Amino acid sequence: MERVSVDNKSNLRGQFFGFLSCLMWGLAFLYNKILIKHFDFISINFYRYVVGTVALVIIVKLMRINEKIKKKDIMKIVSTGVLGMALYNVFTTLSLKYLPTTICGVFNGAIPILTVFIEYAIIQKKKMPRRLVFIACVSFLGIALVVLGSNSGSIGSDYKGYLFLILSIFSWIYYTFASKDILDRYNTLIVLKYQIICAMILFVIPMAFKGNSVIAEMVLFSKVEIVGSLIGLGVFCSAFAYIFYAKGLLIIGQSQMSFYTNLMPVISIIGGLLVLGETTSIIQMSGVVIVVMSVFFKGGS
């Protein structure tokens, strides 16, 4: 049997981390579906990041990692936590308020194409690999079939929705590139700990204005289903998902990791079929196959 080289092993590890991160983010909708019956969007994200912060603080303390960050990098960590974690979720939710999920899904499907363009044409000033561009376009086609096959709405024409949608896309792309730069110099867990704390703090402000409703929400924590969902969302879909994403980012880079974002709606559809008994269409399943195949072939590029 042929021995796998160290590079190939590292590449496989990076691909595996990318898959794990988007598997967890894709399954987050299961927890959100339970929590949205009892909490609003602000509360869900606040509690999510509180739980994620506690998880990362405990892990960092147990591993006794050096937590010092240089002053010149503080603002970049703050900006990635606020923009890439907190505001990305805010912009995405607000875009869905004004636009159908079909449009939001198709636009988000363009993230790999934009990431490849920014990394090669703008940052490295190199010619974009044809194979990577082709696979990105195929992945975009697949995600278009996934969301357009859902019959979830018309095209929509609200400029505010498109503004929030574009802001969400570039918030994520900024997070990917800026985080890679920081992760090259610091321990992954330390970077993520401070990022997620910044995301949590941002949601403290609107929570402070909710007054007595926050006290009423505390009563709900006596329900096992709610506590379990918050732990799943905070620990697995926040702390561990970002850890795996960061690990993959360090190994295979921004362009290849960006392809895994297109797996999230695919995982959501499969999860809905298996767990919630939801239905799907032939068009959607065709898109699922195309996206999965594009990610598979991208792994060898």
Keywords summarizing the entry:
mainly alpha; globular; disordered N terminus; single chain
Overview of the structural elements:
The chain is mainly α. It has one domain (16-298). It has helices spanning 6-35, 41-63, 71-98, 101-108, 111-123, 130-148, 159-183, 188-208, 212-219, 224-258, 263-276, 282-298. The protein starts with 5 loop residues before the first helix and ends with a helix. The relative contact order is 0.21.
Largest sheet: none
Q: Count helical runs.
A: 12
Average pLDDT level? 80
Structural class determined from secondary elements: mainly alpha
Q: How much of the polypeptide forms β-strand, as a percent range?
A: under 5%
Low-pLDDT parts are: 1-6
- How much helix, percentage-wise, in residues? over 70%
Rg measurement, Å: 19 Å
Shape: globular
Report the order of strands and helices. HHHHHHHHHHHH
The total domain count is: 1
Total number of beta strands: 0
Distance between the termini: 23 Å
Explain the layout of strands and helices.
Blueprint: H1 6-35, H2 41-63, H3 71-98, H4 101-108, H5 111-123, H6 130-148, H7 159-183, H8 188-208, H9 212-219, H10 224-258, H11 263-276, H12 282-298
Summarize the structure.
With about 300 residues, this protein is an all-alpha fold. It contains 12 helices and no strands.
